[in-house]
Amino acid sequence: MIVVLSGGVGAAKFLQGLVKAVDEKEVVAVVNTGDDWYLHGLKICPDLDTITYTLSGQVNTEMGWGRKDETWNAMESLERLGGETWFRLGDRDLATHLFRTQRMHSGATLDVITKEISKAFSIGCTILPMTNDTVSTKVQVENKSEFLDFQEYFVKLRAEPRVSKVVYQGSESASVLKEAMDALLNADQIIIAPSNPILSIEPILSLSGIKECLFEKRDKVVAISPIVKGKALKGPADKIMAELGLEASVLGVAKRYFEFAKYLVIDNSDSEYSDEIKRSSMEPVVLDTIMTTPDVAAGLAKEITSLMNINQIQTS
Ligand code: FO1
Predict the structure, then answer these.
(1) What is the pTM of this model?
(2) pLDDT for the residue 191
């Protein structure tokens, strides 16, 4: 079994390659839910949905989130009414949020609903929310005392203000989903996806028991750097790392992960950092990490799973 600690777009692209490289039934994505929130009374789970849409070929590849062939009639009508439209929910995407919210009101838990949605989208691997409890990533920006909801900071303010602190509200009392913990304990390999270390991976690591499990299994833990040549592949990871005093480079990523991950996958263009990564007690693995197509992602996944001699799908 291969467990992937996952955020949104970067993780989704990697998973799309991984399910082409190995038996998809062996793949479990444990997904960040710190970005989840309620808007218009609807429960929205951006990272879970980005992964579901990507794996089913339904994602809007330009944006990386939302559905392809989307229409925006509901948003246009809402705008006319003077409703809140800065967080854009397309007509097709809305159906997912309507379904999830109705199922939550009828008492279903997020993991069960996620499985129902996965089934409807014919997903062959397992997608799990990190927890069924509420954990909310909150961002404090410079010169403000109050914390913003993640999406207010990320979308409404376009991640422009300088970040002074990030907290994962509720994580102290939240329980890791049991199925996710069991998968981690039994995993042949644990992969930390190329997702934002602070906004996407840390909410998962902040849950009691996860880091301890990774420490125990350090030799099987592989992190993929989301930073290439000092820049985030997508989103503001480099900016936020720098604002929080962490080096925005593969070395900054190594500092974040070395205690519980043995390997750090870095891009070919960062190969000059290999020796310094070794000095920070991680093993560098230099590969093409820029996943321009699902085939490139599958190539990356093959190299990474071969580190642990995991059976791969033979392609001619
Ligand atoms: N990102 C945006 O930049 N603008 C949006 O209007 C927006 C809407 C949206 C709706 C549903 C959804 O699942 C994701 C959406 N995202 C939007 C992406 C999302 O804010 C972030 O990419 C993730 O939370 C970070 O992983």
Answers:
(1) 0.97
(2) 98
